[in-house]
Predict the 3D structure of the following.
Amino acid sequence: MRSLGAILKLRRGRKGPDGRRKMHLTDWLAYGYLAIGIVVMFGPVLWLVASSFKTPAGLLEFPPTALPYAQTTVPVEGYDEPLPLFDVTFEDGTERRMAQVRRIGIEAQMVDPDAPGEPITVNIDQREQVRELRLAWENYVDPLQRFNFLTYLRNSVVVTVVATIVTLIANSMAAFGLSKYKFRGRNAVFLLIIGTLMIPLSVILVPVYLVITEVGWVNNLWGVIIPGAATPTGVFLLRQYMLTIPDQLLDAGRIDGASEWRLYWQIVLPLSAPAMAVLAIFSVMWRWNDFLWPLIVLTRSELFTLQVGLNAFQGELNVQWHYVLAMTVLTLLPITMVFAFLQRFITTGIASSGVKQ
Amino acid sequence: MTQSARRLLAALLAALTLAAGAAFAQTELRMTWYDDGSESEVMSELVERFEAENPDIDVVIDVVPYSSGILESLPLQLASGQGPDIARVTDLGGLQEYFLDLRPYLDDPAYWDANFGPFHDWMRADGSDAIPGFMTQLTVTGPYVNATLFEQAGVEMPGEGATWEDWAEATNEVAEATGVFAMAMDRTGHRLAGPAISMGAQYFDENGDPIVTDDGFRRMAELMVDWHADGTMIPDVWIGSQGSYVAGNEQFVNGQVALYMSGSWQIGQFTELIGDAFDWKAVPNPCGPDGTCTGMPGGAALVGIADTDHPEEVARLMDFLAQEEQLGEFYGRTLFIPGHLGLAESGVDFDADLPATQEALSQFAAEVPKLADAAYALQGYQYNRVVFDATRDRLTQVFVGELTLDEAIDRMQRDIEEQIAEAQ
Amino acid sequence: MNRSAAPAPRPRRYTPGRAAFGVFAVVMTVIGWVIEPIQRLIGVRRMPWVFLLPNLAIFGVFILFPMVMNFYYAFTGGTALYPLERPFVGTQNFEQIYACGNYLNPATCNEDLFWRAVWNSFTFVAFHVAGLVFFALITALVLNARIVARGFFRSVYFYPVLLSPVVVGLIWKWILQRDGVLNGILVSLGFDRTLFLLNADWSMFWIIVVTIWANMGFHTLILLAGLQSIPKELYDAGSIDGTGPLQSFWHITLPLLMPNVVVVLVLAMIRAVQMFDLVYVLTGGGPGSATLLMVQYIYEVGFASQIQRFGLAASASVTLGVVLLIITLIQLRLTRGSESHLA
């Protein structure tokens, strides 16, 4: 296999005769495509983030605003609560900024915020809200005060980390067994694993839950960690990669007297690092985003993962969207940060192992 | 593989041992709860007061999402004996086999019978005298109107005794004048049932088996089909989904509909989200041709679970919460219609300043005595969700042209019969 | 891709930090104290089973056994949870699903929703896979061109892969609904509002677009890896012959990329047949049953209804399993060529 760096160098080396790159039509098209790509791929996520700072009323507005606005309110002498500000256009065409005391039907009573006297009555069509940019931090703060965010975070991290380690070890051992030995039953085992590659968990939810109850892992993080650890995808991915590692290396090791176990962890595992990295990131993604299964297995809030705990705002008759959106952003943050730090590692890892599938 | 990972593993082990160890010190009760607003906050304050009086009991409230947690996972957990000690549920009929009878553990069962008696029939088998729990809220379905839109359009609002057709006509005029939609109804067979019963639907045949083939149901179904075909109903609510509940509250809050068929539970949310941005009010349930004008009762109950290891402690907590002092505060702060007859009579001091809120609360309270027997029968039926879901999903298929109304009613009936046959 | 006999040197950045590696080595050595005696006991020939043991144990208990149980469920009725409490009903569940006047017209079928789901799934899978491969290929070609900040753009296209399906469904629901941002943009440009999620065709269109959006990044990287492994000399030879870029794409790039395209095709197809959460959140299967897919049907019948019909759901999932098995066999057949030279 050619190393990725060499390929990149090769590509980058393709320059014009004067040593500088020339922009061709295809280059312009390519950059155009990439520019659209940024908007299309990032835009929706940025929209989510912006929306999560809107007030419940702001979320329902049409046309929606890109930035979170909220109505400006001012404290007015003689009134306990701050009053909302409006720009009022009078019949004679003059415009004044006034605070609304109350609205009755299609009329509103307004006062001058600086000199509150007798309220004047205005038709509601004559007034327009005065708005200011305001981040609704309470969407984040309120839920975090009510729920034990740190507990959920710890559970999510424990599940994700432990499950990923278990997955990596179990899958790589199996892949090693399937790719580096010839033994009777090998094809049968492999076919069995491949055959179940496709069955989604949501289809066998009930039987798996019964097994968990028999094992006694209800309300136990192991009940969330273990069932998904024997991923057929992982075994498949790693096996395909390990097939490319020459057997001569192992034979040489055996001649030196290394045990099979040492061949596995000292030779094959390090050589499979790119594929392991891919499986690791997939495992992290799966576990971090897992929702339905933890919800069924865990009923105690001290064991809830983030995805379970932060979805509590979906009621029977009412979904508190402003909280749901804010909490969604919160669950995105850690995985985005991990990705931002490791993106190079992850994307090149997939690129160099994906080819072997 | 790093040090922090090992620390986390240690934390995990510690958490597991702690969970096991806590059980010895105190009796721990687990309450599975869901939130429509922030009622878990009120409940946890009440529970804290209980814990102060009963230091030997530790109560933990686990808040889960409603549909995936309460509706889908909880039945599985109960069926396998892994449920909590107490749960807030809405499927009062379907889950009743798992409910704990508190009667033997209560000091004063007469108090419970007197105040919750009628609702207990919803949560126990016919003929049983079990006391499974109490209603955290009683709900009544009924329409809200945007009075400001009516005023702007200069349309007179139909009064008491107006039919659904009258309302459709009036709201259509409003819609025309103001550029909004005439009506919206939550996407559920439960909301549909009130109007359908007003139209004469019985939902049961003489043997007590559920049916949707009578003329009354058909009349309402036809109206719904027409209203969706001619744009009276905002399409987003019913047409937008296949297998799930959808509320039309956003459209109403937005001022996009003149009339919104929902229920008493919206009051709190409307107080907060609409406030006085426009005049919203609850109006009496419109009538059918023979003068029946009913909504549907409903609600959620807090029940003990029979599998609990601590039935006595469960009963102690439930009895504490069910007392007028606690329950009155709970209803008052959550703006829920009281499911406690004493409190319903004496009135609850609702925590609301807005006149619209107070008016809406008393309007819904006034609807309670008008509820039809058939509405109570359907609400008390063990498998009513099967009926609600079948009517909802099949009717939607008519709206989008996948089935004719005849085929749809045929299939609703078959869905209901097949599923109930499976359960027996 | 194994052209040289000796293994290529691994770039150093793949190895975890030195300290972590130390921990790893210690742990592995300790496990070795258990496993090495076993090897002396049973001999090298039986060692592969030792390596397979942890995975097979988990796999057997938590995947295979439940699947067998599920298969048994398919032949039982009632609502009892435990298999032994369920009455055996023979092939009744299958008969219920397959009783149909004309399979192409679900309205004539006993379980019309199942067949609607089947045909919806066919449409969805066909367009999703075609669209996914098309856009992944274009993106890979663009990323393989002479561009600056390639790593950055690679991440841009990969980022949505990290999002949970539920979140993706939620985001796009907000974008597409009546008062969503897309309609906001359309209205400000002078177009009419379109009710994207209330029209059967638009809904199908959008679930295809959104699922492509969410999954494209991963497949792009697989194709990109294939493109980068095509020797540049081939193109140089081509340019001497005077072939244009389009011809060189058809005659050089595409044939050499074929193994990767097959991988993408098969993986995308499996994922498409399994599609559930994202569509469930985005359209709920609606309007009507226009975007009801097979897994959602199974989920609703067996799990989300008040009366959970495990038997019917299981027989539908056995059907799904057979479909997936056929896809798998096709995959194995298609990839056999490349696999044999790998092995």
